[in-house]
Amino acid sequence: MTIVHALKPRLNSAFKQLMSVHWWMSWAYLVLCVTGTFMAQLDRSVSYRSSLYDFHKSIGVLTMALLTWRIFLLLQVWWKKYTKRFPKFTAAWFKTVALHTSLYVFMWAVPITGFLLSNSFRVNNVKFFGIVLPDMFPQNSAMVEVGRSAHFWLSYTFLAFIVLHTIAQWKVVRANWRRFTNFLKPKSETA
């Protein structure tokens, strides 16, 4: 007689939630990169430029909220994992921790520099889908260029780290791509 142990369903587990937030944030960062690159090149006379900036800022605020939730979930996962046993401190483990720590620093720093840029430029300049958010920084014309440069350089450095992360997780990327393309195929092709 064999005893079948029922595996704990991972549907509601902290890890599953962490991965869900990961993918929502990845899509949000894709939108931020595309809109940020596009809107920065728009002439000031373009009618929808201001709306695009507001949309970009709203998605940036959303990513900050998601980041807060993600860190909470990550702490839960770490607690469950590392209270049972400590990690093996190998070179690969340190490399992974360094890359992920860098990614989390960028996930925090890029929106903060966006706030610095927006708040330094004008008071009440950040809206979350129409709701004006309190300023994090005072209006200060001397800081506008600092905020602009920091936001630009941190954004593109963050993008480079995302590329490194994608390369490091290439097997996962390929598996997800395969799953996505199979989902898009008509049912008659997959049967």
Give structural attributes.
2 strands, mainly alpha, 191 residues, 6 helices
Explain this structure.
The protein has a domain at 27-40 and 48-83 and 90-170. Helix 1 runs antiparallel to helix 2 (49-82) and helix 2 (49-82) packs antiparallel against helix 3 (91-121). It has 191 residues and is mainly α. Helices cover 73% and strands 2% of the residues.
Overall geometric form: globular
In helices, the fraction of residues equals over 70%
Class computed from helices, strands and strand pairing: mainly alpha
> Radius of gyration, rounded?
21 Å
Number of helices: 6
The overall strand count is 2
Report the end-to-end length measured between terminal Cα atoms. 36 Å
Strand content: under 5%
Instruction: Note poorly predicted spans.
Output: none
- Strand order in the sheet with the most strands: 1-2
Reading the helices and strands in chain order gives: HHHEEHHH
Query: What integer is the average pLDDT?
Result: 86
Largest sheet: 2 strands, antiparallel
Write the layout of secondary structure elements.
Layout (H helix, E strand, L loop, with lengths): L13 H27 L8 H34 L8 H31 L5 E2 L2 E2 L8 H28 L1 H15 L2 H4 L1
Antiparallel strand pairs: 1-2
Helix pairs in contact: 1-2, 2-3, 3-4
What's the quick description here?
With 191 residues, this protein is mostly helical. The protein has a domain at 27-40 and 48-83 and 90-170.
